[in-house]
Amino acid sequence: MKLTRREFLRWTVLGAGASMGAPVLSGCAPAASGGMTRLPPPAPAAGSTYLAVARGGDDPEALVRRAVAALGGMERFVPKGANVVVKPNVCTAGRAYEYAATTNPCVVGAVVKLAREAGAARVRVFDNPFGGTAEDAFASSGIAAQVAAAGGEVEYPAAMKFVSVDLPAGETLKSTVVYGDVHDADVLINVPLPKHHSLAQLTIGMKNMLGVIRDRPIMHAALNQKLVDLNQFLVPTLTIVDAVRILTANGPTGGNLQDVRKLDTVIATHDTVAADAYATTLFGWEDPEKLLYVKYGAQRGIGRSDWKHLQIEEIAVG
Amino acid sequence: MADEPRKPFQWKDRYWRVARSAVQAVALALFLFLFLRTVRGGVPPQAGSLFLHLDPLAMLAGLLASKAYVRGMALALLTVLLTILLGRVWCGWICPLGTTLDLFHPRRWKNKQPSIPEAARGIKHFLLTAILTSALLGSLWLMLLDPLTIMIRTLTEAVYPALDRIVFAVEEALYSVSALRDSISGLDRILRPALLPADPAFTAGGVLIAAFFIGVVALNALAPRFWCRYLCPLGSLLGLTGKLAIFRREVNPATCTNCGACARVCPTGTIRPDKADASDPAECIMCLDCVTVCPRSGQTFPAHLRPAGWNSYDPGRRQALAAIGAAVGGVALLRTDQYLRRDLPHLLRPPGAKENDLLSKCIRCGECVRICPTGVLHPAVGEAGVEGFWTPVLIARAGFCQYSCNACGQVCPVEAIPPLPLEEKQQQVLGAAYVDRNRCIAWSDHQECLVCEEMCPLPEKAITVDYSEFSGGAPVVDRTNCIGCGTCEYKCPVNGEAAIRVYAPGRDSV
Fold this sequence. Notes:
The structure holds two protein chains of two kinds.
Chain A: H1 5-26, E1 51-55, H2 60-70, E2 83-88, H3 105-117, E3 122-126, H4 134-140, H5 143-149, E4 153-155, E5 162-166, E6 175-179, H6 180-183, E7 187-191, E8 195-197, E9 201-203, H7 205-208, H8 223-233, E10 238-247, E11 260-269, H9 272-279, H10 292-300, E12 312-316
Parallel strand pairs in A: 1-12, 2-3, 2-7, 3-4, 7-10
Antiparallel strand pairs in A: 1-11, 5-6, 8-9, 10-11
Helix pairs in contact in A: 2-3, 3-5, 8-10, 9-10
Chain B: H1 11-40, H2 50-53, H3 56-66, H4 76-86, H5 89-94, H6 96-103, H7 122-136, H8 147-175, H9 181-191, H10 206-218, H11 226-231, H12 233-242, E1 250-251, H13 261-265, H14 289-293, E2 299-300, H15 317-334, H16 355-358, H17 367-371, E3 377-379, E4 392-394, H18 407-411, H19 422-425, E5 432-435, H20 441-445, H21 451-455, E6 463-466, E7 474-477, H22 487-491, E8 500-503
Antiparallel strand pairs in B: 1-2, 3-4, 5-8, 6-7
């Protein structure tokens, strides 16, 4: 096909016009997510397990499977045809998972598999690393390979997909910019790993949600209050804490194997606050409310910090 | 002289023109492929500088200035051999800038030659002499004028970032239509990061670099391939080598009628009607357009073993002395730049590069800037003095040096940035961070932050936390550990100048 200059200009103008007009058109377009909207995390029926802890063995996938099974199976969290986003902690490039700076790739892979088995239409794994490019980080952590093998996709951050949101119930954080595909997901599965963090003391599940925010450095003033606001706004459907390894110092980026402890533990619950409260015991903590975002989260009623009063199922694996 | 009647079109008449366009297209495509795909495309970074290794000017100037042979420099001999065999084939068939200039061949010069004095051809020889003399004196600043460094610099700092902005604006607009979301999202995954940067690319004075390039192209209005005829120092080097060309154009007096058709189309205007349509092999780029237009097979390409003759515009003693004098004076003057007297506090160089020999090793090609995945490397505008113009500097507010990356040293064709293994690169001290306690929100406002400490990538953090003044903790740099990667400065949430800044190491340490 030969394109004359006149035709080229005509198409250019049409294209540009369409681009400019697009935001106007979008105003009358139907809602973005394919009909389903994110359901609140399903609380367990009275008398059934609130929080499951699987320990032992050398197979992270078995730990995930057993812990989720104890909660009644992934089907309770993932409806058929759901659009699922998994949020591991992939904070930096250049660290193999043995350094416990990033979530164990086999745990992420197992979560993807379980969601697929439950009938999810699409399972994507998202994080926005601060230490290097996302491609490098997903590759060096080993997560990219496990996600692909499990039938999921890595959602590398695309600048156009961040959306401005208002947090009407937020007390400190009133508005921010979050990743649209996380915001719009039918099911959000939070897969953090517990790490040392100087400002917050520990980074676990609630803190892991910070990864969906575009401009993170400014979040650190009044971090604990803002984390509660954020977790109230973007509520994970399920939290699966990867404590196969934990990082006890020089976090959250790590880099020293002597700072890593291998615990072969996976914690699963619909309640991120409870997950974090229980995970503080992995560091030998007696009082989970020393972790301020857990304390404030419980006060605000978005979850429970009194893990000793919860129905916990402990599973020995392998 | 009357034109010969046009011959009916025959495929074989166009053969050379088609062949040359095809080779030019392939060479330009390979150049662009290496440009794009060695960033994150799985092509080894060393391959990214293939064209520079084939550039005899870059390699010779690099050799003269650094007085050290660098692996891969000998590849340029291939181009030299090609030139000794066939003349300036590089210019006519391979050079990406030459091809670009052909794309902008102005219509006004179709079948017409501008009237520019032949003496102007001497400018490029003057520049070559000045570049090589400066190189011998340890200064490579005139490598700004090498055609490949012009191409790479322009693509990296002007074309690529501008294209990214345009594509992103269109993507963003279309993405807001929900019906198009999935397709735009899929398109974005194909484009980024394979072809365009994942995050918006920022340039240091990209407009300046674009203006320089546009100037080179705009000179085409004065004459086709004005740059190649009169200015290109690589063209000069290959032209002088081309005097030796074994196969070169000659007019066949038995068939030539001096119709002048070849002289009118010659893109370098070296076919002289006043000299029976003879040409200078140092100016001929072997495009073979003369063969294409000739109605009578009036030219032959016989083998010669004697070099071609000297012309009035070829370098003579007088011009050489002037160029050498200008270079000596110029380099001497550059060395009086006051920035050399005191270390510039914010002049941060890529890992392993030493300020003192960077200026005599760096050929200003911009490969390191192109490959840097985190956008911290930029061509210096004012940061490195006049002699350091367009050499790479780290701008820590624009990006940071990724702890797990050593790509710049791998891609540098002249090892001005040494090709260090990752473990060794991680030990390189680019500078040291200092907290400005007057601006740090933890120290001065007692606000929670510690972003610099959190994001410090060293296994033993180079930033520790002091709880004595503020219970939330305030950062303190451990400068025995800090390598100056700039992550803290880049991530510092304080607006404008960061409250933690990396300062260049003192000269004693470089």
